[in-house]
C-alpha cells in the first residue's frame, strides 16, 4: 500500500455523515490506535488485541484464541497464524485480511465503549436515586422545600407499596407451594 493509498483510506474514515448532526468528525478507533504503524504492524496489533479479548483464561491456549478470532473475523486461520508468527518480517499483508482485522478490532472497541457508556448511565441513575431518597431536606427553603418534601414522601409511599406488594406475592407463592406439597402428601397416604 503506497502512502497516497493510506492517506485516502484515513481521509475517508475521518468525515462520516451522522444522523444527529450535519457533519461529525470521527476517526475509526482501529486507525487511531495504530497511527504511524506499518501495515504488518497494524495487522499484528489488531490480531493480538482481538486474541486478548477472546482468550478464555488459564485453560485456554493462545492458538485456540487466534483461530477463534480468525473465524469470527472471516479470515483463514492459516493467515492469522502467519501474521501472528511473522508480522515483524512480513513486507505486506493482504488488503482483504487487513480490512477484516481492522473492522473486527473496531467492532470490539465499539462494543467496549457501548458497555462503558451503559455502566456509566446505570451508575449515574443509581446516584440520582440515592440523592433523591436519602438526601436530607432542609426545612427553611420555602415553597421549593415543600415541593421537594412532597415528592420525597410520594416516592417513599410508592417504595413501601412496592415492597408490600412483592411481599404479598412471595407469601402467595409460598402458600401455593405448601398447598401443593400437602396435596401431594395426602395422595401418598
Task: Please explain how this structure is put together.
This protein has helices at residues 3-14, 29-33, 39-54, 62-73, 77-86, 95-134, 143-188, and strands spanning 15-16, 24-25. It has 189 residues and is an all-alpha fold. The protein folds into two domains: 3-112, no CATH class; 129-188, no CATH class. Strands 1-2 form a two-stranded antiparallel sheet. A hairpin with a 7-residue loop joins β1 and β2.
Order of strands in the sheet with the most strands?
1-2
Q: Indicate the mean pLDDT.
A: 74
Percent helix: over 70%
- Uncertain segments of ≥5 residues (pLDDT<50)? 1-25
Quantity of strands, as a count:
2
Oligomer: single chain
Structural class determined from secondary elements:
mainly alpha
Number of helices: 7
Number of domains: 2
Give the topology.
Elements: H1 3-14, E1 15-16, E2 24-25, H2 29-33, H3 39-54, H4 62-73, H5 77-86, H6 95-134, H7 143-188
Antiparallel strand pairs: 1-2
Helix pairs in contact: 3-4, 3-6, 4-5
Feature tags:
single chain, disordered N terminus, mainly alpha, 189 residues
Write a concise synopsis of the structure shown.
The protein is mostly helical.
